[in-house]
Amino acid sequence: MSARKKDVQFQAEIANEEQWWEALSTPGLFVVDVYQQWCGPCKAVQNLFRKLRTECGEDFLRFGVVDASSVDDLTIFKGKCQPAFLFYLDGKLISVIRGVNGPLLQRTILQYVEEQKKRVELGSKYKLKVKEIFLKDCEESRQPSKPVIEHSKNTDGLGSYYVVIVKPDAVAEGQVQTIKTKAVSAGYRVVAEEERALNENEIRDFYKEKADEPAFVEFMSSGPVHALILTKGEKMDDRSLSALTEMVDPVQVELIRPKVRSEDGQEVILEVCGDSRELASRQLGFFFPSFDFSSGTMGKTDSRIQRTVALIRPSLVKEKKNEILQAIHDAGFKVAMQKEMTLSEEQAREFYKEHEGKDYFPSFINHMTSGPVLALALTKEDAVQHWRKLLGPKILEEAKEKCPESLRAQFALDDVPINQLHGSSSMGEAERDLKRFFPVEHTLAVIKPDASQEHREGIISRIESAGFSISQVKETQLTREMAENFYKHHRDKAFFNSLVDYMTQGPSVMMILSKENAIAEWREMIGPVDPEKAKEVSPNSLRACFAKSILENTVHGSSDAKHAMDNIQFLFGDVCL
Ligand code: GDP
After folding, report:
1. Residue 4: its pLDDT value, please?
2. Euclidean distance between CA atoms 539 and 80, whole angstroms
3. Where in the numbering of this chain does the Nucleoside diphosphate kinase-like domain appear (predicted)?
4. Hey, which of 446, 487, 495 would you mutate to test ligand 1's pocket, going by the most ligand atoms within 8 Å of its Cβ?
5. What does the pLDDT average to over 423-433?
6. How far apart, in whole angstroms, are the C-alpha atoms of residue 98 and residue 66?
7. pLDDT above 50 (res 74)
8. Half-sphere exposure in the Cβ direction for 201 (13 Å, CA)
């Protein structure tokens, strides 16, 4: 027996069409590794597969390996560098995973084994929750609809740039150099490049319109992508635009065209595919955080990204919240977390205790507690210093006189003698302020009964990719009494009875999620209660992606700290967090 045969003996080795069709005619789940002759089956997953087969049993799970060139149906995989794993249930193709992604393979296998076990338990009346797919469609879903190009008529003489993202399979096939050579010979200059593996969450964030196409997300996370910034260093005309479009193969690359124009000779605005300026700079900042589009150079390579806390005081929040957020954004800061809160007198006194005893202290505390403040966690290179510098002097008269451009001068309010903005003065103080305004919080997340059957894995993986830790998890079917109690504040609503019916129809997954600012972030991630509204205002939210109706809306999240504590206590009892 050859070494390779020995390695794969628990996987049926399929050598021809006849064996292929025979393998597919056996009922149950069949997971087959489609490999290239020159590299052989994927060794990296064999231990995992062997373990899963022992755990799940041969009746529920079989494995195979097949050379992509030995079966006609598999020719679309011929010549690809990364393996493809095809999942067949009772001979029908139900899933394709490209690339070696152990956790995803394991999750998918276990999910389908679970389905079969349910079928055995409940008999023929159980309808399998799987959908047949076709190889042709899978291949099509990997093609970008169209290279994304936006042509600007208004480049105002500043350099113009394209961002070219070489996709994982082209990177694996060594196409990056070829693409660069082509670009250079067509007169473009590569001014920056970066290779990066994107996780699923980053992909959904970056490619918002494709966030709910699992095949696309899976494909883009199957290996590193390579991002390039290309420029011709002059205004691009229609001809250079089409030259680049023709030069790059949309199957291999995604082309993004940032508009670059000057507003006042200083400021640079970027737009990608008609999206907002905020999104554009976030998208590009993701790959090239220190690239300066006005000078066309990379910033310092020893970037020292820091976090600091900005506090917008109540009067400014009330009068010019959007304007100040815009100014912060324009100055190149990213808002990593934000929270509006009304400080109690005790909190305000504690926060400003070093000013205690000063004559202005009482009126200052009055002001700070007069309405909600907006706390922001800002990130940028040397954020602490930059933010302090941008704020200007603390005394308003001095700010207006000596630094009229500073934010404190610009955002001084006529009838308020107190400056409206605070910033941590050192990195140590920033850490203290972060803990104070964005402490690690715990919140209750519930995957409601229908979604816990249909989307559990997807939702949990998005929770994890968003950086939450799941401190506790359990599956529980609420009794009517529990559901009535859980939603007691809705007792007099017309939908109360249907809500209780819905929540008691099967087990829900209950989780305690922990993270800085967990309560607000989880609420943001689930989106508005009504999925129609969610699709409009937060299309990437869980409710926009998965909810069926305002009632059957997939997930629950505590709305504030008190509800979180009460709900956690109600469902988990006294837990030590
Ligand atoms: P949540 O905190 O975002 O879940 O929203 P609410 O506390 O307002 O509502 C609790 C749950 O009741 C929602 O998640 C829905 O399942 C359901 N619900 C809320 N509003 C309506 C409504 O107008 N009609 C129906 N049928 N169900 C609703």
Report:
1. 45
2. 33
3. 163-295, 305-439, 440-577
4. 495
5. 85
6. 15
7. yes
8. 13
Q: What is the mean pLDDT of residues 488-504?
A: 96
β strands within 390-439, DSSP E: 421-423
What are residue 527's phi and psi, to 5 degrees?
85, 175
**Domains of the chain, each with CATH number or no CATH:** 3-141 (3.40.30.10), 161-298 (3.30.70.141), 305-437 (3.30.70.141), 440-572 (3.30.70.141)
**How confident is the model at residue 10, as a pLDDT?**
86
Mean pLDDT score of the chain, rounded to an integer? 79
Q: 483: exposed, middle or buried (C-beta count within 10 Å: 0-12, 13-18, 19+)?
A: buried
Task: Say yes or no to pLDDT of 184 above 80.
Answer: no
Residue 368 to residue 365: CA distance in whole angstroms = 5
The yes-or-no answer on residue 556 being catalytic is yes
Say how many Å lie between the CA of residue 144 and the centre of ligand 1.
37
Inter-axis angle of helices 238-247 and 176-185, to 10 degrees? 150
Alpha-carbon gap, residue 179 to 164, rounded angstroms: 10
DSSP string over 260-324: -EESSSS-EE--STT--HHHHHHHHHHH-TTEETTTTEE--SS--EEEEEEEE-HHHHHHHHHHH
* pLDDT at residue 463 tops 90: no
Judged by DSSP in three states, 93 sits in strand
Q: Is 499 in the pocket of ligand 1 (CB under 6 A)?
A: yes
Q: Which of 422, 442, 556, 563 is catalytic?
A: 556
Q: Is the pTM of this model over 0.70?
A: no
